[in-house]
């Protein structure tokens, strides 16, 4: 395993986004890359956003502090928000008809389940 | 003497009791029932799960593994790549392959 780790390095961070993020392995697509970037950023800014939100909504704090926190929260770029991420198919990159527990779209799910890639999943016959 | 229930925060003694209770059970003493929105902080963080959706970034690809185990008498076959190469070779034999890449600028016609 150590030999594998020597050869395999995390891919170079991409320059096309405002902040460098690593590229995922597996199916790649412009939209997958964009969503991956948003996911990394949302994870990175999660604590900051939560703290700001807490300060802004907390009625026990002075009004000035609360407004300041709200302004900072709205000034954050859109890619830091959790609601910007969308589940995409890991196999084909489509965003529609995703079967969430398996992270694949319905057609890819059918192909993979038929090949026996999901243990315990089999075709219903009755 | 009315028998209605007095809220905890009304009488000074009960106020003290509430304060002590909060101290013991480590809850926030909030006599005015202000919205502190502590539930925002109470929720578990989900960034780790969200950012790992597409799998780890340093997971080895089939090509990297094939390169690692390659020797003179042993070669790993990547099925998809093998199929692609065989298909391209067949097309080339029949003269139906992709055209070769042109060298140099191709804007000689545009200049006229």
UniProtKB/TrEMBL annotation, chain A:
Cited Gene3D superfamilies: 1.10.287.1480
Family according to the record: Belongs to the universal ribosomal protein uS14 family.
Gene Ontology cellular-component annotations: mitochondrial small ribosomal subunit
Record Pfam families: Ribosomal_S14
Keywords linked to the UniProt accession: Ribonucleoprotein, Ribosomal protein
PROSITE patterns: RIBOSOMAL_S14
Organism field: Ogataea philodendri
Keyword Cell inner membrane in annotation: no
Lineage start: Eukaryota, Fungi, Dikarya, Ascomycota, Saccharomycotina
Molecular function terms from GO: structural constituent of ribosome
InterPro entries linked to this entry: Ribosomal_uS14, Ribosomal_uS14_CS
SUPFAM superfamilies recorded: Glucocorticoid receptor-like (DNA-binding domain)
A single GO BP: translation
Protein's name in the database: Uncharacterized protein
UniProtKB/TrEMBL annotation, chain B:
Protein name as it appears in the record: Small ribosomal subunit protein mS33
Assigned GO CC terms: mitochondrion; ribonucleoprotein complex; ribosome
Source organism of this protein record: Ogataea philodendri
Top-level taxonomy: Eukaryota, Fungi, Dikarya, Ascomycota, Saccharomycotina
Subcellular location: Mitochondrion
Keyword Ribosomal protein in record: yes
Major location (coarse): mitochondrion
Protein origin, superkingdom: Eukaryota
Key words, A-Z: Mitochondrion, Ribonucleoprotein, Ribosomal protein
Homology family: Belongs to the mitochondrion-specific ribosomal protein mS33 family.
Pfam families cross-referenced by the UniProt entry: MRP-S33 (PF08293)
Region of interest called Disordered, as start-end residue ranges on this chain: 88-112
């Amino acid at each position: 395993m150590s030999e594998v780790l020597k050869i395999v390095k995390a891919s170079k961070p991409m320059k096309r986004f405002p902040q460098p993020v690593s590229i995922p392995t597996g199916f790649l697509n412009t939209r997958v890359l964009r969503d991956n970037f948003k996911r990394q950023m949302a994870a990175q800014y999660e604590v900051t956003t939560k703290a700001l939100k807490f300060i802004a909504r907390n009625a026990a704090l002075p009004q000035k502090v609360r407004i300041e926190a709200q302004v900072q929260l709205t000034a954050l770029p859109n890619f830091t928000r959790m609601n910007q991420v969308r589940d995409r198919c890991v196999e084909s990159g489509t965003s529609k008809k995703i079967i969430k527990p398996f992270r694949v779209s319905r057609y890819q799910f059918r192909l993979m389940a038929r090949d026996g890639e999901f243990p315990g999943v089999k075709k219903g016959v009755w | 003497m009315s028998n209605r229930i007095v809220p905890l925060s009304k009488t000074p003694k009960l106020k003290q009791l509430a304060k002590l209770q909060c101290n013991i059970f480590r809850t926030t003493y909030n006599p005015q029932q202000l919205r502190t929105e502590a539930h925002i902080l109470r929720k578990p963080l989900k960034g780790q799960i969200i950012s790992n959706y597409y799998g780890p970034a340093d997971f080895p690809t089939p090509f990297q593994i094939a390169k690692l185990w390659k020797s003179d008498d042993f070669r790993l076959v990547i099925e998809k790549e093998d199929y692609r190469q065989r298909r391209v070779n067949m097309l080339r034999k029949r003269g139906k392959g992709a055209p070769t890449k042109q060298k140099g600028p191709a804007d000689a016609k545009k200049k006229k």
